[in-house]
Amino acid sequence: MTSFNAGRLALEMRRVTKHFGATCALDDVDFSLRKGEIQALLGENGAGKSTLVKIISGALKSDRGEMTLDGRPYHPSDPLAGRQSGVSMIYQELNLAPHLTVEENIMLGREVHAGGFLKRREVRKKIRDTLEFLHHPEIGCDVPVRQLSLGARQIVEISRAIMDKARILVMDEPTSSLTKEDTERLFQVIRKLKTEGVSIIYISHFLEEVQDVAETYTVLRDGRNVGTGSMAETTLEEIIQLMIGKKITDLFPRVDHERGEAILSVKDLKGVQMSEPVSFDLHRGEILGLAGLIGSGRTETLRAIFGLDAAEGGLVDVGGVKVLKGRPWLMIENSLGLLSEDRQGEGLALSRSLADNITLSRFSPYKKFGFLSVKKRTQAAAQWINALKIKAQGPYQTVASLSGGNQQKAALARLLHQDADVLLLDEPTRGIDVMSKSQIYEWMSRLAAAGKGILFVSSYFPELLGVCDRIAVFFRGQIVDVRAAGDWRDESLMAASTTGKA
Amino acid sequence: MKRKTKLQAFINLLAPFLGLILVIAIFSSMPDVQSRFLRIANLKSVATQSVIVALGALGMTLVIIGGGIDLSAASNIALSSVITAYAINAGLPPLLGILLGVLTGGLIGFMNGVLITELRLVPFIITLGMMGIARGLAKWIANNQKIDAPLSWVNDLMAKSPRPSWLLLAPGVWLMIVFAVAMAVLLRYTVFGRHVFAIGSNEATARLCGVRTKRAKVIIYALSGLFCGLSGVMEFSRLTVGDPTVAVGLELDIIAAVVIGGGSLIGGEGSILGSMIGVFIMAFLRNGCTMMGWPNYIQEIIIGVIIVAAVSLDQIRHRRAA
Amino acid sequence: MKRKTKLQAFINLLAPFLGLILVIAIFSSMPDVQSRFLRIANLKSVATQSVIVALGALGMTLVIIGGGIDLSAASNIALSSVITAYAINAGLPPLLGILLGVLTGGLIGFMNGVLITELRLVPFIITLGMMGIARGLAKWIANNQKIDAPLSWVNDLMAKSPRPSWLLLAPGVWLMIVFAVAMAVLLRYTVFGRHVFAIGSNEATARLCGVRTKRAKVIIYALSGLFCGLSGVMEFSRLTVGDPTVAVGLELDIIAAVVIGGGSLIGGEGSILGSMIGVFIMAFLRNGCTMMGWPNYIQEIIIGVIIVAAVSLDQIRHRRAA
Amino acid sequence: GGKDQAAAAGEAKVFTIAVIPKGMTHEFWKAIHAGAAQAAKELGVNIIWKGPQKEDDRAQQITVVEDVISRGVAGVVLAPLDDRALVRPVQEAMREKIPVVIIDSGLQGKDYLSFVATDNYQGGVLAAKRMGDLLQGQGRIFMIRYQEGSASTAERERGFLETVTKEFPGLKLLVKDQYAGSTTETAYQLAENLLGRFPDVEGIFCPNESSTFGTLRALQESQLAGKVKFVGFDSSPKLVQALRDGHLHGLILQNPVKMGYLGVSYMVQYLRGQKIPERVDTGVYLATKENMDTPEIRALLSPDLSILD
Ligand SMILES: Nc1ncnc2c1ncn2[C@@H]1O[C@H](COP(=O)(O)OP(=O)(O)OP(=O)(O)O)[C@@H](O)[C@H]1O
Ligand SMILES: Nc1ncnc2c1ncn2[C@@H]1O[C@H](COP(=O)(O)OP(=O)(O)OP(=O)(O)O)[C@@H](O)[C@H]1O
Ligand SMILES: [Mg+2]
Ligand SMILES: [Mg+2]
Predict the structure, then answer these.
(1) Residue C321's pLDDT is what?
(2) For an interface test with C, which of B70, B82, B128 has the most C Cβ atoms less than 10 Å from its Cβ?
(3) pLDDT < 70 regions, chain A
(4) Considering CB atoms only, which of B185, B190, B197 is closest to A352?
(5) Does position B16 have pLDDT exceeding 70, yes or no?
(6) pLDDT per residue over B115-168, tens digit each?
(7) Ligand 3 center to residue A246 CA distance, Å?
């Protein structure tokens, strides 16, 4: 209790309420943050975390309620006002201008200038130092951000936030595309900032991570603050119970599945940027994990298999059908399905409804004489919304207005609805809460049991270890080792992905 | 929940009509033209005047929902009308002339689609280029003149008082109605229609979900071209000559109609009903302003204001609905 | 790495010129006009002819990089030229006339910006509406006629053979050069320029990063309007009359120039140098075709083809670079 | 200066003469082209026929004049879109020793050799007189205007308007400030809408071919053709047919073939050192159903364009 109450209040929110149309995202929430405190903000998907921090940063305005910053009333009219008051934020959905370079993105809105003219030389060194500090010197200052992989983009975003000498730093799932190593690095930074008196709000669905870095926590459920306390005095189980209102027994539920014949075999596939060709087989009833660091080539491999990006050469054999130069529609006809790691940019048609998105890759059940039955389609969509517990008003709601995790679930629902034999999953649990994650693992297990093959890319080793049958490790665009999941440990996975040596 | 969406659906349905109702109400209450404005004869002529823009707007709606734009529409209309006139003038049977006109339109649209997908260029540029090319071709074929084709039944398609008088409206108006319904069904109740929305909303997603985006886009532009071709035939029918200079700048009217009707130039949004309402808003505005005898510049200003107002209304409605 | 980017920068620099060089090379090799095409006098007249489109393109580049579009540019030019003529005709000193013309342009642009940001409507619609409004106003003010203002030094601004002959080029051409350099500097070396790129690339991001997007957009459109105003003054200077019907459809030429020069209608890309090259490609094409005495329809077709070709070239270059 | 130089070059050199119309797609300009081509053929010179890219765009016509100057031609025959705006380019041509003959519409100043044109005002007067005769001085009429900023049609409109007010006070103008716009379709719509408002109109005047044809179509569609007295301007095959059918009751005709012919031949005569007149009126004529088959009027109604093929 002592440490929990110590220190001056940095930020206080009282009875903050926020509605989006009929949805109540925040309902009379109280929240406080002390100077130099690292506080975790936890909750299920759609609990209102992002909404709360967006109100703090000025990106959203609350309907009702008061906020004080350092004891003074604080009502930012826009993000600029928030920043000027010393609040800096990493948004859940990456917040970068694709045409601008890394440097330009990092300095956006805080350009150093003399009389309106840019002074570039001074900031450059600082940016280099920061990137180096985060152990990513390979990210060039002059590279347009659209050429970076998702993980690298997240690093850029983090660099921006920590360069912005803020008093309050808000991080909304900063590590969703990061590897363990990068996460560790980030925690070092966070701890250093704490010693400098910066208060930090940290949102994440990786609860062990949270336990590691945060001192206190606040849990939101259905837009209400259901508990606040000191991290050291609680257990994970208690937090999970607060989040979902019940106990969770098994994080990695497993349905027994048998490995069958090969259903996808990849031979000498070489993506444009990969250093070496890749070969592997995926069998029916198997979950094959792909581990690796940022930019190690896992995404590129999946995309090349699916025909989204051109490959320099190689062969993809799906259930006996050889596809050399894949086109995505051909792959779907051959019962392959892919979940993109970039749900906003590629995975979802944001301006369309849930029903449209979920059924987009398979219309056949609703077709009669070439015409679609709108009713049947809506019903089917509603079933998936229930099955995956997507928090939404109904099948007609546009995907853009869902919370980050629920969007991810919608993308997953689409793939499940497609009913493919081979599933290529690229970071499928990005931004998904613990409870739903375990549900997704169960789905995967069940699909494998039904004789499907699953390729599972993840940067989160525990889930790979908990779910997969075999795990392959990528290093600089090639597979360095494949072993049964039981033969890997957290440390050995880490070693293989960082050094490339098994 | 269910009722809410029904109510909202009703509002969504009514709201675009509001602009139209407003325009009609304004002119019907003007003492000068009151008695004349809502007469059947006037409504008939507004309907007939709308056919050309409406047919163009049917295709343009598809294109705009798919996230594209077709600046060549008006030139295409002119080219098709010239081709029809040329063919009929050369002694071909009128039906063949019509077919050639429509196919010419389709061909130009098809080329738009192929160039856009193969060169991977923004539609704005390809269709801007095609705008010049089609107009140039039209003038070339017509030898910089009007083509005086002999009168035939083709010219009755747009007759305000149709030949079998039980038709009530010009055959062209019926064609417009039939095609509008067909397109609305296509967009809403077919896989292709859903694909068009998906492509417009996020092309990468559509590709990922197995939509053959290239093929779909070629079909979209070709269809749009066919409608322009048909519109060109109607233009010829109306004018009785093939005039290569006709419809200059009409592409902006067509686009405006679609956008007034709720089409989003970012793609993924729009409806046939909305576009048709957009067409009629503009047609009634022109008709009413002329009847009032207002100078053309006032008319130009008013139409500009209405375009902005109609779209703002729509925007506000959307924002409230969200 | 360093060398690679330098080489690439060089290619990037040269590539847009390629189109221009090609066009010039073609006409310089035509036996009919060979000897005349590259004469100083002809280059001077091409330069003078380009001023109006070029000034419009300076503002349009800004707008397009910022992810917008300005369809009212051409009407705005006409309105500003009418206002200048009106003011001078009413006996105001020429300088004041110029000022009023430029400010009128700026005001229209400012209104565009305010409406776009306040009504949160797509620029296409607002500027389409404004296109009608400005044109209508121009006709109204000019009373549907042209305004014959007394000749003054204003009309020397666009004289092909400038008064103090050491100027070599018309003062208008010098103005164009000075403003082009200023705008290039603004875009590349100032915070505002950086923000324009950011807004065009991802407006939400720009806002979240603390860019005052609304204010920036209003400034963008107002600046674009000011350039249209200046362009209108030049138009008046060239015509010696204020003509409300001038420059119809010129907005598409202006936009085409920007896009040929590498501007992306999705925003976030474009350059002043590129746009100026685009302007000159079109100007030399027109000039060459006229000198060759080719019929207009051929010219229209060729320009259409060149627009597509130039942009494809640019696209291919980009793809190779990526 | 140019005269001596040209004369020195003598018959050995084939002159190239630029003929610059206001637009290229109206029948009227076709006829001018035919006249010019006829003269060129007879006199053994070349012509470049080149109008502004966009019909009726002043700025682009200036560009065309500048470009043909750059190209270097022996002379320019120009139908100026504006009596003021084209003054400077014409002066520039003179400075480059390229003589200019003006056709169709006037140009301020005196920097040209000769002016060959119709008296447009007179055309309007003729139309008004015909209208007065047809309606016996009593009735409700429209005058539909062509387009904003077009000088020659504005003259015709002025001629018509002034004559009506002066000589036919019994004619009531229901509409006099509506513009048909540049294309047939826009004219058609305007006329249709006007007829919807004033179905009891008794007479209509249109000042050029496209507005006449558009209005004719609207009348035909409303079953009013023949009932409403209709006077138009300029000719095209459809209008000739309408005259024959009694749908048109008068067409004011110019003589564009002669205009083109004289424009080029005066230019050549000047270049060959001969003297040429300063002002030539090519005349306006009234075509009616009665006189349309006289050889003189027939030649004007359906000019022989075969030379262009
Ligand atoms: N723009 C919007 N329009 C409508 N509803 C919205 C909007 N933004 C958020 N919501 C709703 O508000 C609720 C809270 O969303 P929020 O994004 O705060 O959740 P979250 O806790 O961040 O979830 P996640 O862990 O999935 O990111 C959700 O039900 C969501 O659907
Ligand atoms: N920091 C970077 N700078 C430039 N390019 C990068 C960077 N990181 C990744 N890339 C590009 O991405 C390609 C492969 O990345 P890919 O997305 O396939 O990796 P991944 O293993 O899926 O990692 P991630 O977790 O980032 O998605 C690389 O070959 C490289 O071209
Ligand atoms: Mg969130
Ligand atoms: Mg990846």
Answers:
(1) 53
(2) B128
(3) 1-7, 324, 326, 502
(4) B197
(5) no
(6) 999 988 889 889 999 999 999 999 999 988 889 889 889 888 988 777 777 888
(7) 21
Measure the CA–CA gap between C229 and A58, rounded to whole angstroms.
38
- β-bridge pairing D75-78 and A367-368: unpaired
Instruction: Provide the chain C residues 4-33 that lie in CB contact (below 8 A) with chain D.
Output: 33
Q: Give which of B188, B208, B317 to mutate to test A binding, by max A Cβ within 10 Å.
A: B208
Whether C274 contacts C249, CB under 8 Å: no
pLDDT in tens, D46-70: 999 999 888 788 888 999 999 998 8
DSSP class per residue in D238-279: HHHHHHHHTS-SEEEE--HHHHHHHHHHHHHHHHTT----SE
A257-335+420-497: CATH topology? Rossmann fold (3.40.50)
Q: What is the DSSP string of D22-57?
A: S-SSSHHHHHHHHHHHHHHHHHT-EEEE---SSTT-
Mean pLDDT for chain D overall: 90
pLDDT at D183 over 90: no
Reported confidence tier of residue C181, pLDDT bands at 50, 70, 90: very high
Produce one character per residue of A408-430: b if its CB has 16 or more CB atoms within 10 Å, e if not.
bbbbbbbbbbbbbbbbbbbbbbb
The answer to whether residues C275 and C179 touch, using CB atoms and an 8 Å cutoff, is no
A370–C contact, CB cutoff 8 A: no
- Residues near B33 by beta carbon (within 8 Å), at least 6 away in sequence: B27, B288, B291, B292, D197
Backbone angles phi, psi at D75, to 5 degrees: -165, 165
Could you state, in order of their start, the residue ranges of all structural domains in chain B? 45-321
Query: In degrees rounded to 5, what are phi and psi of residue A27?
Result: -130, 100
Relative to beta strand A286-291, strand A453-457 is: parallel
Question: What CATH superfamily is the domain A9-244?
Answer: P-loop containing nucleotide triphosphate hydrolases (3.40.50.300)
Note whether A9-244 and A257-335+420-497 share their fold.
yes
CB contact under 8 A, A349 and B268: yes
Q: What residues does D103 pair with on adjacent strands?
A: D116
A70: number of Cβ within 10 Å: 15
D175 touching chain B per CB within 8 A = yes
Going from N- to C-terminal start, the domains of chain A cover 9-244, 257-335+420-497, 348-418
Q: Does A371 touch chain B if contact means CB atoms closer than 8 Å?
A: yes
Q: What global pTM score does this model have?
A: 0.90
Going by their DSSP bridges, the two strands A23-34 and D114-117 should be labelled as unpaired
Q: Is D190 on the interface with B (CB under 8 A)?
A: yes
- Ligand 1 atom closest to the CA of A402, numbered from 1: 31
Residues 6+ apart with CB under 8 A from D241: none
Here the tokens at position A196 are: 């400098």
Q: Which residue has the higher pLDDT, A473 or C3?
A: A473
Residues 6+ apart with CB under 8 A from B249: B74, C248, C249
Spatial distance between the Cα atoms of B106 and B104, rounded to a whole number of angstroms: 5
Asked if A97 lies within 8 A of C322 by C-beta distance, the reply is no
B45-321 architecture in CATH? Answer: Orthogonal Bundle (1.10)
Most confident of B37-46, B263-272, D269-278: D269-278
Chain C positions touching A140 (Cβ under 8 A) are: 1
Task: Find residues 90-119 of chain B whose CB sits inside 8 Å of chain A.
Answer: none
Q: Is A139 in the pocket of ligand 2 (CB under 6 A)?
A: yes
Residue A248 CB contacts under 8 Å (≥ 6 apart), including other chains: A237, A240, A434, A435, A438
Chains near C, with 3+ CB pairs < 8 A?
A, B, D
Q: Please give the mean pLDDT across all residues of chain C.
A: 90
